[in-house]
Amino acid sequence: MNQPPVLLTMGDACGIGPEIVAKAFVQDGGTDLCVVGDAELMQRELGASMPVARLASPMDLAPPHCLPVWQPVDLPKGLLELPRGLIDARAGLAAARCVSAAVRAIQQGEGRAMVTAPIHKEALHAAGIAHPGHTEMLQELAAQGSGVLRPVRMMLANEELRVVLVTIHCSLRQAVEQVSFESVLQTIRIADAALRRFGLVRPRIAVSGLNPHAGEGGLFGSEEIDHIEPAIKAARGDGVDARGPFAPDTVFMRARKGEFDAVIAMTHDQGLIPVKYLGVENGVNVTLGLPFVRTSPDHGTAFDIAGKGRADANSMLAAIRMARRLAQAQ
């Protein structure tokens, strides 16, 4: 292999992660991919269509027309027997260990980017994993390698829209409390730096308000006046082309029409609803602020269709392609 592979973590063994990883590999056909997961489980997903090649290292070459799988040594046993579509602590533990192994491999130069299949937050919790999702887990794993806990943000993107979130996995009440001058300014800076690395010379960043009509001059809330407007002003003082705050119910339309390169959204659902409405099958989640590239599909474990062969791999394919582009641009 001329360069380190893009690592695909299999996700929750009880969900559609292994299925979409297998389907995406077959459809993509790239020789620069390596699955981090359980070899027997991945063979079940492939059936007789393709054999699995179990690798001793992500950098090893697999024979032609085989799915390369690097299986971490500490995966729980018996994943193949787990009932699909149900929460299981062993699946949560396996998913977390695949992510940890992939990060270590990248830190050791054995991977150039990672694409993570969906995990289930309740399964993580059942396994004793304290993190509420991939973003927070990756932030801590990156810190173990560098000693620095980097601020990170979630960006959801498709061909029409890029959205970066100020707050992510917490209650709406907590999210409102977390919208501060510091959190908004940090998000704008992270988004601007990432977009520049991805090739935009001077990104045009729209900042959404928190309240209806962006607070209507304080009539519907003071967060825009107290926190968001000062953060935008400070970012502009740093040379960032940040504008707003704009009414949340129209700013995403304006960005989709090409007025802005990205939108800063204050809360998880405020930002994800417009992206997912445009098509979950085309959306990609990108973690900004990490020292390596990480993308993922813009959907969850889909327990309701797990094991039925009906999962759509298009978002996984989009995540793989974006990981390649971003790794090249780094």
Task: Summarize this structure as a short list of keywords or feature phrases.
alpha/beta; twelve-stranded mixed β-sheet; 16% strand; 11 helices; single chain; 330 residues; Isopropylmalate Dehydrogenase
How does this structure look, described?
The chain is of the alpha/beta class and 330 residues long. The chain has two domains: 6-150 and 291-329, Isopropylmalate Dehydrogenase (3-Layer(aba) Sandwich); 159-273, Isopropylmalate Dehydrogenase, CATH 3.40.718. Helix content is 40%, strand content 16%. It has eleven helices and twelve strands. It has helices at 17-28, 39-46, 89-107, 121-126, 134-146, 172-178, 181-197, 223-237, 248-256, 268-277, 314-329, and strands at residues 6-9, 33-36, 52-55, 67-70, 113-116, 153-157, 162-165, 204-208, 241-246, 262-265, 284-288, 293-297. A twelve-stranded mixed beta sheet has the order 3-4-2-1-5-12-11-6-7-10-8-9, with helices on both faces. Strand 8 (204-208), helix 8 and strand 9 (241-246) form a beta-alpha-beta unit. The chain is elongated and about 60 Å long. The two termini are 20 Å apart. The mean pLDDT is 93.
Short summary of the structure?
With 330 residues, the chain is of the alpha/beta class. It contains eleven helices and twelve strands. α1 crosses α11, α3 packs parallel to α5 and α7 (181-197) runs parallel beside α8.
Provide the CATH architecture of the largest domain.
Answer: 3-Layer(aba) Sandwich
From the spread of the alpha carbons, the general shape counts as elongated
Give the CATH topology of the largest domain.
Answer: Isopropylmalate Dehydrogenase
From the alpha-carbon coordinates, what is the Rg to the nearest angstrom?
Answer: 20 Å
* Beta strand count: 12
Low-pLDDT stretches:
none
